[in-house]
Specification:
This protein has 459 residues and is an alpha/beta fold. Helix content is 34%, strand content 21%. The chain is built from 13 helices and 19 strands. The N and C termini lie far apart (57 Å). Bound molecules: 5'-deoxyadenosine.
Amino acid sequence: MPSVFIKTYGCQMNERDSEAVAAQLVAKGYSLASSERVADVILLNTCSVRDMAEQKALNKMQNLVAETRRTRPNVVLGFLGCMAQSRGQELIDKLPDVDLVIGTQKFHRTGDHLDDLLARRRDKVVDIAEEQGSEATIKEHLSYGGRRNNGDHRSPLQATAFVSIMQGCNQYCTFCIVPYTRGAERSRTIPDIVAECRELVSRGVKEITLLGQIVTSYGKREIGVRDGKSAFVQLLEAVNEIEGLERIRFTSPHPKGYGDDLVDAYGRLAKLCESAHLPVQSGSNRILKLMHRGYTRERFVGIVEKLRRVKPEMGITTDIIVGFPGETEPDFEETLSLVREVKFDNAFVFKYSPRRDTPAATMPEQVPLEVIEERHTRLLDLVNEIGKDKYRRQMGQRVQILVEGPSRKNPERFEGRTRSNKIVVFEGSERHRGQLLDLKITRAGSFTLYGDPAILGLD
Ligand code: 5AD
């Protein structure tokens, strides 16, 4: 049977989609190639959120065309995911050597389309239609499913896994392409999600991250509020009941969905980890309004305060865009002051990138690139300074980690994450994989901690 190599760009949702496509293809008898050089099918699962991500995938495909078409003309080349969805046929017009373009609601059709192309029943396939019920199709996992297995089904058991709970977004932030690439919000049912989580736990998974473009809007239309609890909190309660599961995380929420029911859930649900990725985007109310974010700076700070009241050790990270159209120096200084006020554990800082079809792309007062670059550097410096301090404060603390596998920075060592989502590297071995381990933090590096097993009673 042919072998497939999938390269993934972008967010965790994309990683999860690639994993589900790989699992689907393995179930059909395809094998997973260890590298693109030996693959019969090469698929790029793409990201559209910033122009740079699109350019990366386009350049990669151009290189693949140049490399394969001379020596291996029968290799099937395809684009999957967000850029495939937003550009469709245009990708084949631009790169006529591309055989396959599959949108975000058609991942589950990848196997059938590849069969057709490989059997030469079809010459090209572009499938980017909407499909009702597609949110429930991302449920296959490789037999050793989970994050960081690079699609290699022979890799050892994974302690952590992603579960997709919803697709799409109805928020229409003015900078964001997601509603156009991922479509309207659609949620899976609670029993369907719980069954998938149970199955993963039965295979040894200890930590599950619930995924969606805006998870706090989970089940709004389909399930609704019950006993004062949002559908998302109802889902968290149901997943918290799963025996054998140790930890629950989720990403990405929207600050406006952080009601008191969700804040309280951190106090009530033992498995829900003390960590939140809360994208704030800007510290200026004027810019937040132009972005159509649906909250003010004060409301955001209020949520953070409430979360820290319930769980003082809460790890809080964020996303920030610099150089949104109309952002003045005083607006940007509001962002700096918010970062100083909240003291995020980490923040991902993005340079504003105009996206097609989004309102912000045609707003007046686009910020010049040099100004964006300069603000980006200033904000990153501040984020790093605060992050350094936050990580340093962990020294001497005793923390619990879930061991995920060899360290990405130093494969001689092992690593895991604290409940507050900080990576800890330690002298470990394969036997630690999947274990919950108590460590004492001995050193703090750049957004990484180093620890030693804590021996009770000796410190
Ligand atoms: N330009 C720059 N950053 C963007 N993001 C989303 N759209 C854009 C854009 N047009 C950032 C946001 C979001 C993260 C995933 O990507 O900060 O939270």
